[in-house]
Design goal:
Number of domains: 1
Distance between the termini: 31 Å
Strand order of the largest sheet: 1-6-7-2-5-4-3
Helix content: 25-40%
Number of strands: 7
CATH class: Mainly Beta
Radius of gyration: 18 Å
CATH superfamily: Small protein B
Shape: globular
Largest sheet: 7 strands, antiparallel
CATH architecture: Beta Barrel
Length: 151
C-alpha cells in the first residue's frame, strides 16, 4: 500500500467484533486536528459511527489538542462528519437498524494527503466466540514456536 500512512488502528475491534463489510470514508476535520493526526496521535478505542438524518458522524474518537497551537484548537472528542456516498450511507444505516449490527472505525490513515477512516459493519462476538479466538491465536503461536524450534 503505497501512499498510505496509518495513524491509529482499533485492534480491540477485531477481538470484540466479527467484521462483515468494510468501507473507506473521508473525514471533515479542522486544521489543528489534521496537525495533531500528522503527529500520530489518535484513539479509536470507544469510537463508533452515529447517524443523524442522512449523514454519518464519527463519535468518541479522541484526537488530542495540538500542543503547538495557541488559541485556535479543537475539542478532542467532537462529532466529525464522515464523507460517504448516499448508497453507502443507506446500506450501512439499514444494516445497523434492521440487522442489529454495529458500525465501528477500524483505522484512521492518510491516503494521498487526505485523512481517511476505514469503518466496518460488524456483529458483536459472544463470550464463547472470544474464547475461541483466544484459543486459535494460542494454537497459531504454538505452531510458529515449534516451526522455529525445528529449524
Amino acid at each position: 500500500m503505497t501512499g498510505i500512512k496509518i495513524i491509529s488502528e482499533n485492534k480491540k475491534a477485531w477481538f470484540d467484533y466479527e467484521i462483515l463489510d468494510k468501507y473507506e470514508a473521508g473525514l471533515v476535520l479542522q486544521g489543528s486536528e489534521v496537525k495533531s493526526l500528522r503527529v500520530n496521535s489518535c484513539t479509536l478505542k470507544d469510537a463508533y459511527v452515529a447517524f443523524r438524518g442522512d449523514e454519518a458522524y464519527l463519535q468518541n474518537a479522541h484526537i488530542p489538542v495540538y500542543s503547538a497551537s495557541s488559541y485556535n484548537n479543537h475539542e478532542p472528542e467532537r462529532l466529525r462528519k464522515l464523507l460517504l456516498h448516499d448508497h453507502e450511507i443507506k446500506k450501512i444505516q439499514a444494516g445497523t437498524t434492521e440487522k442489529g449490527l454495529s458500525c465501528i472505525p477500524l483505522k484512521i490513515y492518510f491516503k494521498k494527503g487526505r485523512a481517511k477512516v476505514e469503518i466496518a459493519l460488524a456483529r458483536g462476538k459472544k463470550k464463547g466466540d472470544k474464547r475461541e479466538t483466544i484459543k486459535n491465536r494460542e494454537a497459531d503461536r504454538e505452531v510458529q514456536r515449534s516451526m522455529r524450534r525445528d529449524r
